[in-house]
Amino acid sequence: MSDLLVANVRYLHGADDRPLAGWLRVENGVIVDGGAGDAPAAGGAASFDGGGLLLAPGYVDVHVHGGMGCDTMDADPDALIAMARFYASHGVTGFLATTWTDTRPRIDAALKTIAQCVGRMPGGSTLLGAHLEGPYLNAVRGGAQNLDLIRRADRDEAIPWLEHGVIRLVTVAPEFEENAWFVHECRSRGITVSMGHTDATYDQAVQGIEAGVTHATHTFNAMSPLQHRAPGVVGAAMGDDRVRCELIADNIHIHPGAIRALWKAKSNNIVLISDAIRAAGMPDGDYPVDERTIYVRGGVARLEDGTLAGSTLTLDRGVVNFARATGQSIYAVARSAALPAVRAIGLDKRKGAVRIGWDADFVLLNDDGGVQATIVAGEVVYRA
After folding, report:
1. Over the chain (384 residues), what is each successive 10-residue block's mean pLDDT?
2. Which of 272, 267, 193, 202 is nearest to 234 (CA)?
3. Model pLDDT, residue 17
4. Under 8 Å between Cβ of 225 and 199
5. Which pLDDT belongs to residue 20?
6. What is the pLDDT of residue 13?
7. Active-site residue among 275, 316, 359, 361?
C-alpha cells in the first residue's frame, strides 16, 4: 500500500453523472482526502498526474478463469501473478480466481494455491478469493464444463474446500435435493450462492432464491431460458430484486438487445464479468482445459462440438459494449461497474466507489473507455 497524490483527474462523485475535475490523496492505500480544482502539495507522497483523464472505481471481475496462457486450475502462484497483471492492464483492480468442474484433487490444489496467494499480487490486481464454479451443476446445462465430472454436493469433498477460507462465491444447480445442504452451508459461512449451469424450472429457481441464492451465473447462458409459459431460471432471476445477474457483455454470448432488456429489468443489479479463459490476451489457437481442447478462432472460444467455452473478453471491453447496448455514457457505466460486483461478495464497505475512507483502487480512462492507467491500493500498477 502506498501514499499517493492523484492530481488533474475527473472523477465521478455521488449521484452526479458529470465528473468532478480535481484531485485525491491516498495514504496507506486508502482515500483520505480529495477536492475540486488544483491539487495541494504532495508532501511526502508520490505524485501522479492524471492528465485530465476520467478516474473511476477499479473494475472487479468475480468470474474469470485465466488469461495470458494461464488458468486458475494450473494451481501455480506464478500463473495467478501473470493473470493479475494482465487483468490490471484492463482496469481490473480485484478478481476472484474461478475454478472449473474437475476432479477433487485438482480443485483442491487450485484452492490451496489461491489461499496461499490471496491478497495483493505483485504489480497487478488484488486476488480477492475464489469463485467455485462447479462441480455441483446440472449436466443438461453443462456448457463447456466437463460433463463427466459434474456431480452432486458431497460433504466429505466440499467441507474441506470451504475450510480453505477463500471461497467467496459458488455456482450450483439448485434443483437437486442433494445440493440443498451445500447452499445452506455456504450461506451460513457468508459465501454468496449463485445459480448457474442449471436446468431448474421457474418454481425450483424461486425455491433456491428462498433458500439463499442471491446471484445468477452468466445470465442467459447455461440456464433454463425465459419463455412465456415457462419462465425458467432467467425469469426467476430477472423478476427478483434479491438476485444479481452476471453478464458477459461480449456480444457473442449475449445479443446487445438482450443486454438492454436485462438492464431494463435489473438496473444496478447487473454484475459485469469476463468469464475469460487462458486464451484471453493471446492469439487465436488451441488451448487446453483439463484433457480437452478449446479452439479460439476470431477471438471466439469453442469446444470441438461448437459449444462456447468461456471468452477472451476483457472487462474494459465489456464496459464499453454494455454502454453501447444500453445507451449509457462511459462515465455512468464505469462509475457503477464495480459496485454490484463487490456487493455480491460482501466487500462493498470499502471497495467499488471513490469515497473517503475506501480503498484507493482506480482505473483511469479516456473518453472512449480505453484504460490508460490502473491504481491498486494507491500503487500505480499499469500505464498505457
Report:
1. 90 70 95 92 91 96 98 98 98 98 98 98 98 98 98 98 98 98 98 98 98 98 98 98 98 98 95 98 97 98 98 98 96 89 96 95 96 98 97
2. 202
3. 63
4. no
5. 83
6. 64
7. 275
Distance, CA of 214 to CA of 222 (rounded, Å): 17
- Closest-CA residue to 59 (of 382, 315, 378): 315
Cα–Cα distance, 40 to 30 (Å, whole number): 18
25, 345 in Cβ contact below 8 A?
A: no
Amino acid at the residue 305 = D
329: which residues sit within 8 A by CB, 6+ positions away? 17, 323
Amino acid at 92: V
Question: Does the global pTM surpass 0.85?
Answer: yes
In 10 A of CB 264, how many CB atoms? 10
- Supply the pLDDT for residue 19: 80
Domains in the chain, CATH or no CATH each? 4-55+353-383 (2.30.40.10), 58-345 (3.20.20.140)
The pLDDT value recorded for residue 37 is 92
Is residue 275 part of the annotated active site? The answer reads yes
Residue type, 256: P
Cβ burial, residue 18 (10 Å; 0-12/13-18/19+):
exposed
Q: Which strand (E) or helix (H) includes residue 318?
A: helix 315-326
DSSP-assigned beta bridge partners for residue 66: 71
- Asked whether the beta carbons of 347 and 338 are under 8 A apart, the reply is no
Cβ proximity of 84 and 336 under 8 Å: no
- What's the confidence (pLDDT) of residue 1? 62
Nearest of 13, 127, 57, 2 to residue 364 by alpha carbon: 57
The predicted pLDDT at position 10 comes to 94
**How far apart are alpha carbons 119 and 289 in whole angstroms?**
26
